[in-house]
Amino acid sequence: MHGYALVGYLDNEIESCFKKLWEDLSENNITQYGVDTKGRRPHITIADYDNLDSDRFVELISKFYEDKSRVAIALNILGTFINTGTLFLAPTLSTELLHFHNRHHDYFKEFNVNENSW
Fold first, then answer.
1. Which of 45, 56, 102, 103 falls 20 to 30 Å from 116 in CA-CA distance?
2. What total number of domains does the chain contain?
3. Once rounded to an integer, what is the mean pLDDT over residues 102-107?
C-alpha cells in the first residue's frame, strides 16, 4: 500500500521565513524537525490518499487545477503533533479556503477511501 499527499507550497518569501524559523528552533534545541530532512519544504496538506490510480489522478488534477487561482490564507493557529517534535501553524478556515477544500474533495471523491481524511 502506498500513501500519497497533495500539498500546496507557499510563495518564496513565506517559505524563506519558515526555513529561518526552523533554523532558529533547531539552534535553540526546541525541535530539529524542520532541518533534519534535506529538501523539506513548508506546505499545506490539501488531501491524502492511501492508494490511487496515479495516471488517472494526474490527468484529473491537471484539468481541475489549470484555472484555479491562489487562495489567500492566514496562519494564526500554533499547534503540535504530540511526541513527534513537530510544531505547526494551521490556517484560519476562511470561506474561500473552505470552498477550495470542499471543491477539491468533491471533484476527487472517487479517490476518497476514508471520508474522514481531510
1. 56
2. 1
3. 93
